[in-house]
Amino acid sequence: MLLGERRGSFDEVVRRLGAFVWQADRDAESDGFGGANHIDSGIYIATRGASRQLLPLEDSPGCYHARRMTEYSIGLDLGGTNLRAAAIDRGGKLLRLVTGHTQYSEGREAIMSDMVDAIASLRDQQGAEGIAGIGVVVPGFISLEEGVVRNCNNIPSLENFPIREELSRRLNAKVILENDANAAALGEHWMGAGRGVNDLVLMTLGTGIGGGIICDGKMVRGFMGMGGELGHMTVIPNGNPCGCGNRGCLEKHASATAVSAMGKLLGYGDVTAKQVYDRAVAGDERAREIFVCMGEALGIALATLVNAFNAPLYLLSGGVIGAWDFFAPAMLAEARWRSFSFRTTNTRVEKAQLGGEAGLFGAAYLPWSK
Ligand SMILES: [Zn+2]
């Protein structure tokens, strides 16, 4: 049967074909907790936004019906090991998802082509008439003013390259650039644990620690768009040296990388944060102490953030939050005694909900967040 002959409603299509639940791993960070997403490649079409049930496009005649969507946005997340881009509607329903094929090691031109192809294919299939905008999320320090990535450890070839201008030129459309952690905060604010909360702070605990701050519903970007770098707040005055030039940065004491580094110090060899966690679960007291150290560092940062922002919600994401029961008690105790605001108000500290999808949702939300 030809695609065009199937004119049933979206729901009928779903019932007829059956849907499978997309259970992407919650974090694609290489911290030993998450592993890769269970999305190989190709294009998918969503049938239910809330539960994110997806059908492979090749098998789904529903692509015809998706054209009826009036307003959607395209988000692209250049995170992990390869890019993902999605068309998402105003209500947060994931319409289509594309994953890139290019390895970042193939260089800038290959990455740029991959990005342009992914966005263009979504726009072509979804229809150019309903598009609200394009948001692109890149890891690293970004100068939003100039649309340039200043520092990008994952993809050095993109550093100091006018990525926003070049994407706009090739796509003949305006592109909004954002840093990955800021986008994750925006994604959680829109469709995750921060729904309905206008003031929140997110910290992503991965190989480093990223941060995103939302005040009164708006992203705090600073005058050059480099705000929210919470991983580089000093928590130990003369602590571990950091690549940023400082010592005792939060990410040197509380990231997944810091947990595995502490494991090495204790003679565990070349361990991942997950392996340290497994030791803690097995009753290894020294492994548990590592998570107490991590919790204390987080608690110091948290107390400072609470004192500065008095936001009602603080979210943590990243695979290492799987060790919540081991680090959270120390984190909360530390925040409690260091912050009057924290211990005298109903301030929530919770796990983020969107995991590895937060950046993608945040990217898509960018055109609507202005
Ligand atoms: Zn630093």
What does this structure look like?
The chain folds into 2 domains: 3-186 and 357-368, 2-Layer Sandwich (Nucleotidyltransferase, domain 5), CATH 3.30.420; 196-352, ATPase, nucleotide binding domain (Nucleotidyltransferase, domain 5, 2-Layer Sandwich). Helices cover 35% and strands 20% of the residues. The chain has 12 helices and 15 strands. Strands 1-3-2-6-5-4-7-10 form an 8-stranded mixed beta sheet, sandwiched between helices. A 5-stranded mixed beta sheet has the order 13-12-11-14-15, sandwiched between helices. A two-stranded antiparallel ribbon has the order 8-9. It is globular, with a radius of gyration of 21 Å.
Topology:
Blueprint: H1 10-17, E1 20-21, E2 42-48, E3 53-56, H2 63-66, E4 72-77, E5 84-89, E6 94-99, H3 108-126, E7 131-138, E8 141-143, E9 148-151, H4 163-171, E10 175-179, H5 180-191, E11 200-205, E12 209-215, E13 218-219, H6 251-254, H7 256-265, H8 273-281, H9 285-309, E14 313-317, H10 324-338, H11 340-344, E15 348-351, H12 358-365
Parallel strand pairs: 4-7, 7-10, 11-14, 14-15
Antiparallel strand pairs: 1-3, 2-3, 2-6, 4-5, 5-6, 8-9, 11-12, 12-13
Helix pairs in contact: 3-4, 5-12, 7-8, 7-9, 8-9, 9-10
The structure holds zinc ion.
Zinc ion (ZN) is lined by residues 232, 242, 244, 246, 249.
